[in-house]
């Protein structure tokens, strides 16, 4: 487990001028989890985060509560908050839930996706490819998660989209905790092929491609529980620089 000095949309939750302080803090922490800059079991000190973001502990507490509702942060009575650290059994349950969710989303996306949504996803895949090519695995993983959120938006089903947000972030935790592929990536061409099938309305092909994609994700997990560690101040150094 990490410690204060040794660990630390869907898709990227873009920070905008109109956002509240709660939203800004929430976005930064969520993105850090998706990019694996915050590994599982990292302690999230309210005091340290308040110092980093220059806000009150009340605001930090509200952001952490929101993240706990998405099951990527665990709040323990009298012990504070920490990034969730799924057990092996929980990991298997998350992967199974993700499989059920993604197949349902893919089927609906093939029925409802618009050209504008397809074009937006293609741009996202291009950014993802570039990130991986440049060795920026964290950003590539976050953009990959964003791709799957965009697919859920295509499905035109609000409950599925809400569930997908949580499952994508939980899967990022699984990858951070259990992946053994040394950050290899095979999703880029798979994402493009999946988009092609959805755009053509070929539901059966899209479902087959999604299942293959999910099988690849599952095959990379060894479930040995290894984690990395980093410092809260290092993770959010960009925030400190801009204050």
UniProtKB/TrEMBL annotation:
A Pfam family of this chain: GntR
Record keywords: DNA-binding, Transcription, Transcription regulation
InterPro entries, per the entry: GntR_C, TF_FadR/GntR_C, Tscrpt_reg_HTH_GntR, WH-like_DNA-bd_sf, WH_DNA-bd_sf
Protein name, UniProt field: GntR family transcriptional regulator
SUPFAM superfamilies: GntR ligand-binding domain-like (SSF48008), Winged helix' DNA-binding domain (SSF46785)
SMART domains: FCD, HTH_GNTR
GO molecular function: DNA binding; DNA-binding transcription factor activity
CDD domains: WHTH_GntR
Boundaries of every HTH gntR-type domain copy: 19-86
Transmembrane parts of this sequence: none
């Amino acid at each position: 487990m990490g410690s204060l000095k040794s660990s630390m949309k869907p898709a990227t939750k873009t920070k905008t001028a109109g956002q509240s302080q709660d939203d800004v803090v929430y976005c930064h922490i969520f993105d850090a989890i998706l990019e694996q800059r915050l590994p599982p079991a990292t302690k999230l000190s309210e005091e340290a985060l308040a110092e980093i973001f220059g806000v009150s502990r009340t605001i930090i507490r509200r952001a952490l509560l929101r993240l706990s509702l998405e099951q990527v942060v665990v709040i323990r009575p009298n012990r504070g908050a920490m990034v969730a650290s799924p057990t092996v059994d929980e990991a298997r349950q998350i992967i199974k839930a993700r499989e059920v969710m993604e197949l349902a989303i893919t089927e609906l996306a093939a029925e409802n996706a618009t050209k504008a949504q397809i074009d937006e996803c293609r741009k996202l895949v291009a950014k993802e490819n570039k990130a991986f090519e440049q060795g920026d695995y964290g950003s590539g993983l976050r953009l990959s998660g964003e791709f799957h959120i965009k697919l859920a938006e295509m499905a035109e089903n609000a409950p599925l989209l809400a569930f997908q947000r949580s499952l994508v972030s939980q899967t990022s935790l699984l990858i951070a905790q259990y992946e053994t592929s040394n950050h290899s990536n095979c999703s880029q061409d798979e994402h493009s092929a999946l988009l092609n099938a959805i755009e053509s309305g070929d539901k059966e092909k899209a479902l087959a491609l999604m299942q293959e994609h999910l099988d690849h994700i599952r095959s990379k997990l060894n479930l040995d529980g290894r984690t990395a560690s980093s410092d809260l101040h290092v993770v959010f150094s960009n925030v400190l620089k801009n204050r």
